[in-house]
Amino acid sequence: MTAALHDIAVEAPDRPDVVALIEASDAYSLERYPPEGHFGTDIAGLKSPDISFVVARRDGVAEGCGAVKWFDDATAELKRIFVSEAARGLGLGRRIMARLEAIAAERGAKTLYLETGPLNTEAVTMYRRLGYVECGPFADYAANPYSLFMTRKLTDEPSNEG
Fold first, then answer.
1. How far apart are CA 88 and CA 73, in angstroms?
2. What domains appear along the chain, each with residue ranges and CATH number?
3. Among candidates 42, 107, 50, which has minimal Cα distance to 74?
4. Is 110 helix (H, G, I), strand (E, B) or coil?
């Protein structure tokens, strides 16, 4: 099993298997944080015209996802990056990040932001390896003990897919 077997494409987030993936992401978050520390965008929000949502599939099975939310022509937020337990350790998270960064760059974004939880240690490690650094709250977020805010300039060296 290798990450290369995954196809990553823009899809609607309301397909039943993708909804199940989002529910798994919510469960993962709620195992680590109280409800007031869960900031995941719901399916209706992910269908918003200011969001590009991607799904990673292996043999047709949805095993990962992520989204870009556009703030303006130069800035965007990465959201809902998640890899199912069955697909962890294959480099899929990095490939989803690379796809999201490519979508953002194609649309002219220069700066990306993301919010994650400090207890999502695997994700935080991946983001740091991809050049993301901690920053303060952005957009409508407020400082809280459940959030870690990160940013990266897309004019820097692009992240690796592998």
1. 33
2. 3-153 (3.40.630.30)
3. 107
4. coil
